[in-house]
Amino acid sequence: MTTPVLLHGLSEIAETYDALLCDVWGVVHNGAERFADACAALSRFRAERGPVILISNAPRPATDVLPQLDALGVPREAFTAMVTSGDATRALLAERAPGPAWAIGPDRDAPLYEGLDLTFTGPEDAAFISCTGPVDDTVETPEDYRQRLTLCASRGLTMICANPDKVVQRGDKLIYCGGALADLYAGLDGPVVMAGKPFAPIYEMSLTEAAAHLGRELARGRVLCIGDGVATDLGGAANQGLDALFIAHGIHAAEALSAQGELEPARLSALLAREGGHARFAMRGLVW
Q1: Burial of 79 (0-12, 13-18, 19+ CB in 10 A)
Q2: Residue range 21-46: average pLDDT?
Q3: Please, which residues have CB within 8 angstroms of residue 267's CB and are 6 or more apart in sequence?
């Protein structure tokens, strides 16, 4: 496995690319505060090079996530458009309307279902499962759902998981996401379908968006994916034949960084080898 080239800043490679597909949680913010240097780097690329598409595994439509970015102070000039797993998942849900669905997730994810004419019920009577994450991600773990998911698996129900992320960084903590519940369900031999990273639908939407803003066909060799998730961000980029820049201070910080918070090549290589990930470039945090 090739060790990623360690960069001091995005400016070292910016001229090589016409568009960025950039992860949000762990790169642009940590759920509690924005990363000002990352926002500045994205703004500079957008102004001088081309479109920046935020590509997020948030299980809600982008129109519902944008106010969260505003509240964290992420400037709108830092990105051209946003595509979420929720956007890509709505088509899968629409195909299964009217359901009924057993919806697992917090009330804040309700916009995912707006206008889809779905009905909802419990696991005993559902025709399929729609999962956005734990109902209360501050205290719940996937094990809280084992009994109910075992029942659904025995019935052969398909789970549509709107957020493939297993964990996400919120401040200085890692919390469980929909992908952790999907892993449990798959381990129970339950069928799982996902549209977010690392799966193709969200990349197809994002590349189409980038080409539209660029005003011409977009060569894949001129697209750079940026993210902190080995399985999702790096895996999705590899699946699509796109270059990837790994950001080490996100969810894998404990494995990739030294005790002093510095990016260590040996630790990074060991992490990627262990997880089967590949990145062309790596940085501690995104800066210009």
Answers
A1: buried
A2: 96
A3: 255, 256, 257, 258
Q: What is the DSSP letter of 188?
A: T
Report the candidate in 157, 161, 169 with the shortest Cα–Cα distance to residue 202. Answer: 161
Query: Which DSSP state fits 100?
Result: -
CA-to-CA dists, residue 267 to 2, 120, 258, 262, 273, angstroms: 14, 46, 8, 10, 10
Asked whether the predicted pLDDT for residue 2 surpasses 80, the reply is no
- Which of 6, 56, 21, 64 has its CA nearest to residue 211? 21
pLDDT tens column, 227-247:
999 999 999 999 999 999 999
Q: pLDDT per residue over 80-129, tens digit each?
A: 999 999 999 999 999 999 999 999 999 999 999 999 999 999 999 999 99
Residue 81 CA, chain-centre distance (Å), reads: 15
Q: Is 142 helix (H, G, I), strand (E, B) or coil?
A: helix
pLDDT at 172 over 80: no
Q: How crowded is the C-beta side of 105, counted as CA atoms within 13 Å?
A: 30
Spell out the alpha helix ranges (H) of 155-231: 178-187, 200-214
Question: How far is 63 from 84, CA to CA, in rounded Å?
Answer: 9
The pTM (predicted TM-score) of the whole model is: 0.88
Per the listing, tokens 């916009």 go with 111
